[in-house]
Amino acid sequence: MTDPRYPIGLFEPRPFSAAQKEEWVADIRFLPNAIEHSLHNLDEAQLQTPYRDGGWTVHQLVHHVADSHMNAYIRFKLGYTEGEPTIKPYEEQLWAETADVAQLPVNISITLLFALHQRWHTFLLSLTDEDWKKTVYHPGQQKELTLWDLLGSYSWHGRHHTAHITALRERKGW
């Protein structure tokens, strides 16, 4: 049985290649469509259902993806424009409990994701093979990460959370 925390498995880093770059950049481009599709015809009670025992609700999960990917976009821009900047970790669990998450419908974050991912995708297409080697320092992980590492991680992140929703739908027969 698949671990409901990791329906697509854990992130596995991969070496740089043109084919892998194309796949991961496409994941960034199409994540808003994928997550919107995963929500199709869910009602408010379903959106308030945790995707797993002890997990966030679908509603919180969608807002989390928007929060996370806004941070990701900024991390990419910092890594591209500055020499190994230290990026800011944030308390994801606390962000998932803020008033905007609690009060706003998921379509707000879906709209945000469409705009954000269009900008992010366009930016990613401009990077040279050499640019992917640029780094940021993540104090929470206490390590240097390349833009390539970040791309793989956020490609996985979007697919990971979309799979949380689709796996819940399958389990519940929605």
Tell me, briefly, the overall form.
globular
Extended strand count: 2
The share of residues in extended strands comes to under 5%
- Approximately how much helix is present in the residues? 55-70%
Taken in chain order, the helices and strands follow as HHHHHHEEH
Structure annotation, total helices: 7
The end-to-end span amounts to 20 Å
Query: Describe the biggest sheet?
Result: 2 strands, antiparallel
Across the major sheet, the strand order is: 1-2
Q: Specify Rg, calculated over alpha carbons.
A: 16 Å
Structure write-up:
A two-stranded antiparallel ribbon has the order 1-2. The protein is mainly α and 174 residues long. The model has no long low-confidence stretch (mean pLDDT 97).
Please outline the helices and strands.
Elements: H1 18-38, H2 44-47, H3 58-81, H4 92-95, H5 99-103, H6 106-125, E1 135-138, E2 143-146, H7 147-172
Antiparallel strand pairs: 1-2
